[in-house]
Amino acid sequence: MSTAEAATLQRVVDTGRYPLTEPDSPARRRLVEQARRELAESGCTVLRDFVRAELHEELRAECAGLAPRAHFDVETVNVYNIAVDDDLPADHPGRIPFRRGNAFVPRDRIPPEALVSLLYGDATFRTFLAECFELPRLHELADPLSALVLNVVEPGMEHPWHFDTNEFTVSMLTQGASDGGEFEYCPGIRTARDEHFDDVRDVLEGNGERLVHRLPLRPGDLQLFKGRFSLHRVSPVAGATARHSAIFAYSERPGVVGSVARTRQLFGRVLPEHLDAERRVRGDELLD
Q1: Distance, CA of 48 to CA of 14 (rounded, Å)
Q2: Tens of pLDDT along 176-209?
Q3: CA 106, CA 66: separation in Å to the nearest integer?
Q4: Residue of 38, 56, 65, 26 lying closest to 223 (CA atoms)
Q5: pLDDT digits (tens, 9 = 90+) for 66-110
Q6: DSSP string over 12-81
Q7: Does the 42-110+135-276 domain belong in CATH 2.60.120.620?
Q8: What is the pLDDT of residues 41-63, one digit of tens each?
Q9: Is the CB of residue 235 less than 8 Å from the CB of residue 181?
């Protein structure tokens, strides 16, 4: 670890609680073990006040200042982010539409000196995440837009029920909504071999309360989440304050770039990198 990396972590992260710069310390080993255990049990773990408390307002203000740079486009989607197909059975959960109103600030509009940028690009932070997810290594996403984004949910909007394309997600709340905007999820509702359409439909139709977990989050909390197999959403935001969260995208292999269709859907534009990487390799045959 370079001196610059150590300085970044020491400035941004509460290294007293989260000793990322001490790879052989018992405290760090316990931290990784706890994260692995919670991810195995519920697909989610939260590191409370991961960012130093004295930086919470700076974190909020930086990201709030970036929010107007988001691409806003309300659209009708389904839980699998695929087109509703007339060939789907009548009771298929993919037939249930939702209004997706959240917006994304892409990486190329987030300054490199922003706190979330400094954290995203830190190699020691990335190594720690890989250990928590029990992976040999993680790479920054090669995608110039979706590698690091700010998810903006304005009052009256929501990020509806969906599954993630990646098996794991790293995110951080930077500003909570004044009302609503709860993170809700259904851990392990599907597997790589079984979509469990009946359970998914129950949740979407409001009959699956037994499957839904609600997770209170605060600005500066780091959330590690296995969203490929866990249905999840941000509930409708009300009140006067928008909900902002940074999403740190990593991959197990280098060079990963998002598809043209999905990139245009999220950001309203594509770059040459997306056109060059039109073909995306998938590790399973799940929808989305």
Answers
A1: 10
A2: 999 999 999 999 999 999 999 999 999 999 999 9
A3: 10
A4: 38
A5: 999 999 988 888 999 887 666 888 899 999 999 999 999 999 999
A6: HB-TTTS-TT-TT-HHHHHHHHHHHHHHHHHSEEEETT-B-GGGHHHHHHHHHHHGGGSB---EEE-TTS
A7: yes
A8: 999 999 999 999 999 999 999 99
A9: yes
Query: pTM value?
Result: 0.91
Neighbours of 215 (CB within 10 A): 15
The amino acid at 113: E
Map out the domains of the chain as residue ranges.
42-110+135-276
What tokens does 20 get? Answer: 């990322």
- Which residues on neighbouring strands pair with residue 140, listed in sequence order? 250
Pairing of strands 222-225, 237-238: unpaired
Structure tokens at 28: 């760090």
